[in-house]
Amino acid sequence: MTSTATPARRVHRRLAITALVLAVVGAAVGYWGFVSGIDYALNGSGGGPGPSIIVFFVGAALSVAAVVVAIVGLMRSSRKTLPTIALVIGLLPIGALIVTALANRR
User: pLDDT tens-digit profile of 15-29?
Assistant: First the structure.
């Protein structure tokens, strides 16, 4: 079976799928790091946050990379659905952190 997609379309499709995978993995890793960091902070054992800060920043970096790759995919491809979904998923953790920070401001 041969594909009817041109090589440029395949590259753009791979770019969109890469952005989507980065967004999902970044959101999951960032969420896990955030929740485990809060658990360490509220535990009261005095052990400190441990590696959860590093995990959170890795998730944040993956989310930012997903946003950048999704924007590149939006600019270069004629198909906009998959890069748009990746952009939204990549922006969700960033938006959630902004809302959390603004809600806790006094």
Answer: 888 888 888 898 888
pTM: 0.76
CA–CA distance, 94 with 102 (Å, rounded to integer): 12
Maximum distance among all Cα pairs of the chain, rounded to whole angstroms: 62
CB hemisphere CA count around 31 (13 angstroms): 13
Nearest-10 Cα torsion for 55, 57, 63, 68? -140
> Each residue of 38-89: pLDDT tens digit?
777 777 665 666 788 888 889 889 988 988 988 888 888 777 888 888 888 8
Half-sphere exposure of 68 (CA within 13 A, CB side): 7
Count of CA atoms in the C-beta half-sphere (13 A) of 7? 0
**Rounded to an integer, what distance in angstroms lies between the CA atom of residue 60 and that of residue 97?**
10
